[in-house]
Design goal:
By secondary structure, the chain is α/β, with parallel strands linked by helices. The chain has 12 helices and 8 strands. Helix 1 links the parallel strand 1 and strand 2. The radius of gyration is 25 Å and the shape is elongated. It binds uridine-5'-diphosphate (UDP) and magnesium ion.
Length: about 350
Amino acid sequence: MARLEPALSVVVPIFNEEAVLPLFAARLRAALDSLAEAYEVVAVDDGSTDATPAVLAGLRRGWPQLRVVRLRRNSGHQAALTAGLFRARGAYVASIDADLQDPPELLAEMLRTARTGELDVVYGVRSDRSTDSPFKRATAGLYYRVVRRLVGNSVPAQAGDFRLLSRATVEALRELPERGPVLRLVVPWLGFPSGEVDYVREQRAAGRTKYSLSRMLRLAMDSITSFSAAPLRVATWLGVGGVVLCSAMLVVAFVAYLGHYTVAGWASLYVAVLFLGAVQLLCLGLLGEYIARIYVAVQGRPSYFIGSDSDDATEHAPVDAAEDPHADDVLTVTTTPGPRTPR
Ligand code: UDP
Ligand code: MG
């Protein structure tokens, strides 16, 4: 690798953002050019199906620091972020959303904070989310309360995926065997010295959110099950509670039997059966969540596939393409993250 390492890499996960990309690129470029440091922007096109690839290609023509990594299929925000982090070359690697909800101008302050405080991680903390919908704020509030209880208070509340990482942190992440980690929890868990920079969450500049309710639920479920076995204990505690309750009921039943107070008892039986059925299903579902995680881990499939990287295309495309059995053109490079290779 003869290439000079930039001081800063900025990773941007992008999925169908044709509307906002030109605005974003203009603001990001102005912010980064004013840094007077060598930088690269790693735009991770997460399998967009709109004009995003064309917009990125157009931007690249006039912006040599822009690098475009395309994933072969839509793999989700976290996977796209991971792909970008692992491909970035900078001494510091920042990640930012493409929709201008995170102000690019703050990157300079993050870099300064990291350098002056000798910090490995600087979180962008949303001090004001008034532009988010009440529903988003309420669910986000609950999410952070739960994960902070489960993972620990090293997880900053209201810190999403707008953050700056040192090279050492990125390498530590790369060494984790976990596929598709929830970065906003794994990064604090690594325990590097960290700081925070406050900012006001802006409104999405254009386009629509790519986070549906089901994706939010998925992220919440992954966050909890990847860090805690506490939900599994719910079954145990429900079982203990059930035994205590049943013992009391047995005494009541026995007394009633002795006193000849026994009546039809349809309602109580009905309620008990429904309740127990629901509890059992809940516990089965919880077990299922963990088994699903084991299943995914055992399969060992990568959480994303690199389709192309504009840097590889210009630097060493023939070598990589020759090694790659899936390559159907010179631009296609198959690389998998982490130490394992897919079977
Ligand atoms: N994103 C992505 N892949 C996806 C969904 C989203 O790369 O499958 C990107 C999206 O383009 C954006 C960032 O992740 O840059 C955050 O998404 P979004 O703004 O839609 O989420 P929200 O801010 O509404 O939670
Ligand atoms: Mg957004």
